[in-house]
Amino acid sequence: MKIQNAEKVPVSAVEGQGAEGVRIRWLIGKDDGAPNFYMRLFTVAPGGHTPLHSHKWEHEVYILAGQGVVRTADGRTAVAAGDVVFVTGGELHQFANVGGAELKFLCLVPKTAT
């Protein structure tokens, strides 16, 4: 069993084309021996966003804090603390911070996604 405060997990910048002001903490990952899913904590600075992208695997997302929009091929939808988002495999998506404070969300992905 692993029990650890999320703030003590190392943080790194999300780099790559289309990412701006995004940091990630791998709360549960390959080093923990998780057999099925990995859990990540994203923090997006005001005005920042993840890349607009798609991939084969799904995401389960829980918005912890802040205000944002989720961009898809169908448009944009506002999200805030307490909202959940299910992104299907192959779906175009982007998370953007539209508020004045950090946007924080948990994102779970299948182990096979990494």
What report would you give on this structure?
- With 114 residues, the protein is mainly beta.
- It has one domain: Jelly Rolls.
- It has no helices and nine strands.
- It has strands spanning 12-13, 20-28, 37-49, 59-65, 67-72, 75-80, 84-87, 94-97, 103-110.
- The model has no long low-confidence stretch (mean pLDDT 96).
Tell the overall outline: globular
**Strand arrangement in the largest pleated sheet:** 1-2-3-9-4-7
Report the CATH superfamily: Jelly Rolls
**Biggest pleated-sheet summary:** 6 strands, antiparallel
Give the averaged pLDDT, no decimals: 96
Taken in chain order, the helices and strands follow as EEEEEEEEE
Euclidean distance between termini CA atoms:
22 Å
The CATH topology is given as Jelly Rolls
How large, in whole angstroms, is the Cα Rg? 14 Å
Per CATH, the architecture is Sandwich
* Approximate helicity band: under 10%
Return residue spans where pLDDT drops below 50 for at least 5 consecutive residues: none
Strand content: over 45%
